[in-house]
Amino acid sequence: MIRDYANIIYEVQKGREPNESSIHFAKRIMKILYESSKLPKYDIIIATGSNHSIFPSFFQFLKGGKVFAIESQDRFITKGKAVDIISKFSKGVFLHWEEQRKLYKDKSIVVGPIVERPRYEPRDNDYILITAGSLGFKRLFDIASKITWKKIVIQTGKVDPRLYKKENVTSFSFDPDLEKWIANSSLVITHQGKTAMEAVVMYKKPVIIVYNKDWKSATTYEDAKIYAEVLGATFLDDPISWNSDEILYNALEKVGKPKEIKPGTPKLIHYLRDEENLIP
User: Fold this and answer.
1) What is the pLDDT of residues 244-274, one digit of tens each?
2) Residues 87, 187 within the same domain
3) What angle, 0 to 180 degrees and rounded to 10, lies between the N-to-C axes of helices 54-62 and 22-37?
4) Number of structural domains the chain divides into
5) Does a structural domain hold residue 133?
6) Cα–Cα distance, 53 to 220 (Å, whole number)
7) Residues 134, 108 share a domain
8) Dihedral Cα 143, 194, 231, 254, nearest 10 deg
9) How far apart (Å, rounded) are the C-alpha atoms in residues 238 and 247?
10) Residue 97 belongs to what domain range?
11) 7, 39, 129, 262 - which has most CB atoms within 10 Å?
């Protein structure tokens, strides 16, 4: 998936997934340390925040590299644990929103939402896209797949896509070009995470964010709710708390246009270019 974006790729064991405990991290720590220490030195390092960023960026810091971190787009009250650790030895933390500035105070670098340049023209092909990352979100999919009055596209992740195949539903585990599905959708339903920001900022799509309680090490309910407000998205609690499927159906009827938000990626690039010029 990332081969189109990099000339050289190194693989380091990830400590844990969002639904895993610290026990998994402890079991993998020796392999993580070994693989991280073997990476060659780079002048500028950008740690994207997941736990697999901690040790590679720390070893780069020890080797004299300039380390920057990127906080998650959905953190406003709480810090990401990995980014909080990395911030202790980094030169700064890039942030997507002014509302995040208080998280890292003098190390905060607010650039705006960090997204790719859109590869497609936005279109409305009259379907609802439902996606919830690589792990999937079965209880959301179970309810959304009952919709009969609209075409539905579901990227299921690790949930079996065969559970949802019917006349008006297209389902698949994974598509490396998810952006195409976002660009051509009428509406995007997703969980807390980056897809909501991409849909709004890159393609100006209406979005419903459905909170997933299973992501134990991810953002909090309060963070996710603020995230939806910042984007102009509709926010719903985890389906496990719903007393009726109508909660989703009513949200579909009431969903409004998202906010007009300018990407911050160009500002981040300019900042790094200035830093690069200062490297002896």
Assistant:
1) 999 999 999 999 899 999 999 999 999 998 8
2) no
3) 30
4) 2
5) yes
6) 21
7) no
8) -10
9) 11
10) 22-112+263-277
11) 129
Amino acid at 22: S
- Distance CA(41)–CA(33), nearest Å, equals 15
Q: If you write DSSP's letter for every residue of 30-90 in order, what string do you get?
A: HHHHHHHHTSPP-SEEEE-SSGGGHHHHHHHHHTTPEEEEE--TT-SSS--HHHHHHHTTS
The CA distance from 62 to 112, in Å, is: 29
CATH code at 137? 3.40.50.2000
User: Strand 66-70 vs strand 44-47: parallel, antiparallel, or unpaired?
Assistant: parallel
Report yes or no on 76 lying in a domain: yes
Q: What is the pLDDT of residues 129-163, one digit of tens each?
A: 999 988 999 999 999 999 999 999 999 999 999 99
pLDDT tens sequence across 66-124: 999 999 999 999 999 899 999 999 999 999 999 999 999 999 999 999 999 999 999 99
Query: Does 221 map to a domain?
Result: yes
* Residue 95 · residue 107 · CB < 8 Å: no
* 109 SS3 class: strand
| Per-chain mean pLDDT for the chain | 92
